[in-house]
Amino acid sequence: MAKVEVLCCGQVPFRNNPKTMMTQPSKIPHVLSVAGSDSGAGAGIQADLKACASRHVYCSTVITAVTAQNTVGVQGVHILHEHFVAQQLNSVLSDMHVDVVKTGMLPSLGIVKVLCQNLRKFPVKALVVDPVMISTSGDVLAGSSVLAGFREELLPMADIVTPNLKEASVLLGDVPLKSVSDMRAAAKLIHDLGPRNVLVKGGDLPNSLDAIDVFFNGEEFYELCSSRVNTRNTHGTGCTLASCIAAELAKGSSMLSAVKTAKQFIKAALDYSKDLVIGNGAQGPFDHFLALKNVNQSAYRQNRFNPDTLLLYAVTDSTMNRKWGRSIAEAVKAAVEGGATIVQLREKDIETRDFLDVAKVCLKICRSHRVPLLINDRIDVTLACDADGVHIGQSDMPASLARTLLGPEKIIGVSCKTPEQAEQAWVDGADYIGCGGVYPTNTKANRTIGLDGLKDVCQVSKLPVVAIGGIGLSNARAIMEIGVPNLKGVAVVSALFDRECVLTETKNLLAVIS
Ligand SMILES: Cc1ncc(COP(=O)(O)OP(=O)(O)O)c(N)n1
Ligand SMILES: Cc1nc(C(=O)O)sc1CCOP(=O)(O)O
Ligand SMILES: [Mg+2]
């Protein structure tokens, strides 16, 4: 008899009756991986199990082949008979509630066919196809007959297919793919084969500092960039990425969101494992379980930036402060003492060295009030003084590049006037958007978008929004009440700094928006 040490909710379990000893039934998202076994456990079924476990998703497995492989290469492949693959599929799908099926190595046409039959018989929420054809060591894992099965049966059923450059080339009849524009063309042609979404992975693109993947959903292209991690431990990245996408879809994410999260997870895992030494070959495995080791990952960055800090966003202007006879540091001190919840140093006419000195002083003031300090436009100053982040506009450095340069920890804000710009800011890894100009202002020559433009952007933005432009005591409350939950605050320049007493103006403005 099982020993029960903790009783939940005061319930006394009935002895020897396992049903009454259970707590509330709970459901865990479930991915079924249909793939080959990798004895070295870097890729294949083993990588899929680790990726799903690391993303807190249950993973069942249907094994299509057993490979003898290690960090040197693939020494042997034993393909399972399609009838036995069908039996495994039936065992899992007829009994368990599977949310998402993810496929890896499908080494025979018969296996592709039984898989498609079972997917028709047991429909799932999504099908993620990683078209494994060539191993990272260059060994061929699926012959040309399988290709026909992919093209004719499997891809038309797929919600997403994730080829690398070699696989995309093979799927399209060996077309050469050498640039991001080739990848876009390939994504479109593969989309024509039937999958709802395509992710062409550019990790092997020559002469590229970044890992650029092209995502195409049939309407729009997205270039997803992350800085390349310098490591030998990349074996299994394709399997892990596809499993991670499947895991996020099983949890209920949208497709683009799942892809983005998966890419961040891979980057964090590669960074974390870059010096790991397993095996003597050219390509080692990486460690999926960074989450267990309390590692600060970009995929788990939610504690780093609190969107509520956008409530009263003070943006400095040296002309105004000079006019009223105060230094930038005095202005910032008054603003944070008055209740500003975040500060941006927007100093357009200052020498770099002076900017750096002022930023260091302001940083001390802001840190003592636990208020984040961002720098306008200047990534170099942000890094040099270790400010909390940067705010950039549409004509400044692209946000994806800013993220690469600043790393996962810094806050990045991007100015956006349109829903498309807001979507791109999110793809690029920004943390919030500044949306405006809402009303006309003398502070910056700018096109206004009005309250309706602000609402349009807020409604599509997946990032928190701060409104900017012509905002002050008379209209701030109305802006905060437009009724969109992701509008988190107002950013103001002249209403605080083109006034005699910054402290009083900040307190008054805070009172009307709180
Ligand atoms: C919070 C916030 N939103 C928008 C802007 C404007 O940034 P940008 O478009 O780069 O223009 P400049 O400020 O550089 O003139 C901002 N600074 N802050
Ligand atoms: C810096 C800035 N950016 C804007 C944008 O529309 O992106 S409007 C603006 C100036 C806002 O100043 P004030 O609060 O004095 O109107
Ligand atoms: Mg700018």
From TrEMBL:
One biological process term in Gene Ontology: thiamine biosynthetic process
Name used for this protein in its record: Thiamine-phosphate pyrophosphorylase
SUPFAM superfamilies the UniProt entry points to: Ribokinase-like (SSF53613), Thiamin phosphate synthase (SSF51391)
Known catalytic reactions: 4-amino-5-hydroxymethyl-2-methylpyrimidine + ATP = 4-amino-2-methyl-5-(phosphooxymethyl)pyrimidine + ADP + H(+); 2-[(2R,5Z)-2-carboxy-4-methylthiazol-5(2H)-ylidene]ethyl phosphate + 4-amino-2-methyl-5-(diphosphooxymethyl)pyrimidine + 2 H(+) = thiamine phosphate + CO2 + diphosphate; 4-methyl-5-(2-phosphooxyethyl)-thiazole + 4-amino-2-methyl-5-(diphosphooxymethyl)pyrimidine + H(+) = thiamine phosphate + diphosphate; 2-(2-carboxy-4-methylthiazol-5-yl)ethyl phosphate + 4-amino-2-methyl-5-(diphosphooxymethyl)pyrimidine + 2 H(+) = thiamine phosphate + CO2 + diphosphate
Magnesium among keywords: yes
Keyword set includes Transferase: yes
Record CDD domains: HMPP_kinase, TMP_TenI
Any GO CC annotation of this UniProt entry: chloroplast
Role played: Essential for thiamine biosynthesis. Bifunctional enzyme that catalyzes the phosphorylation of hydroxymethylpyrimidine phosphate (HMP-P) to HMP-PP and condenses 4-methyl-5-(beta-hydroxyethyl)thiazole monophosphate (THZ-P) and 2-methyl-4-amino-5-hydroxymethyl pyrimidine pyrophosphate (HMP-PP) to form thiamine monophosphate (TMP).
Family to which this protein belongs: Belongs to the thiamine-phosphate synthase family.
Pathway recorded for this protein: Cofactor biosynthesis; thiamine diphosphate biosynthesis; thiamine phosphate from 4-amino-2-methyl-5-diphosphomethylpyrimidine and 4-methyl-5-(2-phosphoethyl)-thiazole: step 1/1; Cofactor biosynthesis; thiamine diphosphate biosynthesis; 4-amino-2-methyl-5-diphosphomethylpyrimidine from 5-amino-1-(5-phospho-D-ribosyl)imidazole: step 2/3
Keywords, comma-separated and alphabetical: ATP-binding, Chloroplast, Kinase, Magnesium, Metal-binding, Multifunctional enzyme, Nucleotide-binding, Plastid, Thiamine biosynthesis, Transferase, Transit peptide
MF terms in GO: ATP binding; hydroxymethylpyrimidine kinase activity; metal ion binding; phosphomethylpyrimidine kinase activity; thiamine-phosphate diphosphorylase activity
Domain Thiamine phosphate synthase/TenI: 312-496
